[in-house]
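Posting for a labmate who doesn't have an account.
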Amino acid sequence: MDDNELLAKIDREESMAYGINDAQLSNERANAIDYYLGKPFGNEIEGRSQVVSFDVQDTVEAALPQLLKIFTSGNQTVRFNPKGPEDEAAAEQETDYINHIVMEQNPGFSMFYTWFKDALVSKNGYVKVYYENEEESVSETYKGLSDEQLTMLVNDERVTVVEHSQFPNGMGGLIHDVKISVKNEKNKICVENVPPEDMMVSVDAFNLDLQNARFVQHRKMMSIDELKESGFDVPDNLVTDNNLYQLESTARDLYSESFDRVAIGNDDILVRDTYYLVDDKRMRYVIAGNTILHREEVELVPFVSITPILMPHRHIGRSYADLTMDIQLIKSTLIRGQLDNMYLSNNGRYAISDRVNLEDMLVSRPGGVVRVQGEPSAAIMPLQHTPFPPVSFTMVEYMDTMKEKRTGITSYNQGLDSESLNKTATGITKIMDAAAMRLELVARLFAETGVKQLFMMVHRMVRMYYTKPDIIRLRNQWVEVDPREWSNRKDMTINVGLGNGNNDAQLNHLQVIFMAQKEALASGLNIVNESNIYNSLVKLTQQSGFKNPELFWTDPKTAPPKQPQEDPKITIEKMKIEADQQKFAAEAHLNDAVGQKDIQAKMAQEQAKMEVEIVLEREKMALEAELEKFKAQLKAETDMKIAQMNAEMQVHELRHQMLNDERNAMIEQSRHDEKMAAMNRPKRIIRDHSGRAQGIE
């Protein structure tokens, strides 16, 4: 089909997809943002209370710290599983590298924060994963370079000379001052948040995995220059669409940002990055206005989605805002009524006659005076109002309880219940465990859907785009990582630290496990090894709030080898000491007390002598080991210096050879020039006495 038919199909998909053209979904998302920000409901009455309860915001902000701690407290959010014993080292390196890309090379924490918050407020959160290859230019200035140094510098194909000046060096040569620009390639896998309203997904998507959707589109405002910098060929007669009005984006405005952006009058245009399944092929179309700027066949859709409450067989889920908006409205109404009744009690209504000074009556302040003609009681009559029923306060508490049941966010796991001391520890623990299960379910849903898919997608793109080794610091060591040698991973464990109970309970569980491991190891049971002990200590450290357990514990796999066992000579000497001690003890038993004292003194003397010899032997062995280590280091340094000297000699010989070649070439050129000059000089014919030619002079 031609471009017009394709654009018509895409327009039709847009009209039926979840997203900006879905008025109900947009209204619900915008309404949720309004509730989160505590904006007025629109039913306020002038002169009456307009207070708004922040239940949506309180619930979302209470859930975020616990969810973020689960996913970002350790060094490994995910862990790739090895395919066999020989694959363990590779899987471990891939785990560290992919976690490094997501959490360190990208703003991992802020990305997770925005992603989770979008989901908790706007039903679904989205992130985009893409490869970025940019050239980064860095300016450098060098002064006092020799000819050779300048030549070596500018011979690099990445270098461009920006400024150059030269001066005599006083020895017949030149020195150079130069300013250069060095171009470096910047390869990066980028992970960035996408506002939910910028995404359009076909309604046939039956789960969160966008790879199953027939149609996915990312809508974004971009300038013409940004499109050209991205490598797109933008025609001069491009018909553009500048309309991207979104209820959700406008709802986020606290300071009229949308109005200000329009007032700026920028030339941004709407760009639709579309992923469309055509004839069982996943195609990508980049569309600006009515022009397709780019098309290609792709393997995957680079977007990942999460939702806190999954709706079976549907892409759009439910949010924490959906669970608490009605509670916020009801609580706000109850609190408004209570405040209005309090205002009425403090400033009641009165029936007055025309003998009362109206200006005085309208001013309500302590110590105020109202002027009246005649008897005041006959001119002013208070109007009775019905007190607000006390049950309204119970209703507010009931709405809080309902919110806790719906969301799992209680005053206990926020540390806000002032009456916790009046309740049993067991009862509070049960309440907190039950509430934590709701939040852990959300964390597990995030983990097994979007987070897992995000890391798998990053792993796949690294294998696809990284074509040369990279050197990075992993676990306090500089290592070389070559993604070209990686295998295609399909097995991955989400390491999000989920478990029963709160943080203290998990610490207690880990400590019990660690003590049991120590007892098993001391008993000689072959069910615990150093790796098991190390894993327990790492978990204990992470659960205690420390992000880098390698600062406290050394992995047995990377630990230096154990010290060699005691020298057999020392063992034999110890055995001799024990034999002598037994001999002396037997002799002491047969001798009298005086002789026994002499023997004991002799034994003590011999024992002290042997102990000194053992200490000296150990020190000798330690010194010999240090000497061997020093010899090895000295040899390595000597070899390095010899290699450097050889390299310098080779460079010197190469330069000397180049000079000889130039000198020989000049000599040959001089000889050649002399021959040519001789050949080109005028010639005279030599003749004999008869006039015949005999030669040329």
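Reply:
Got it, the structure tokens are right above this. The chain is about 50% helix and 15% strand.
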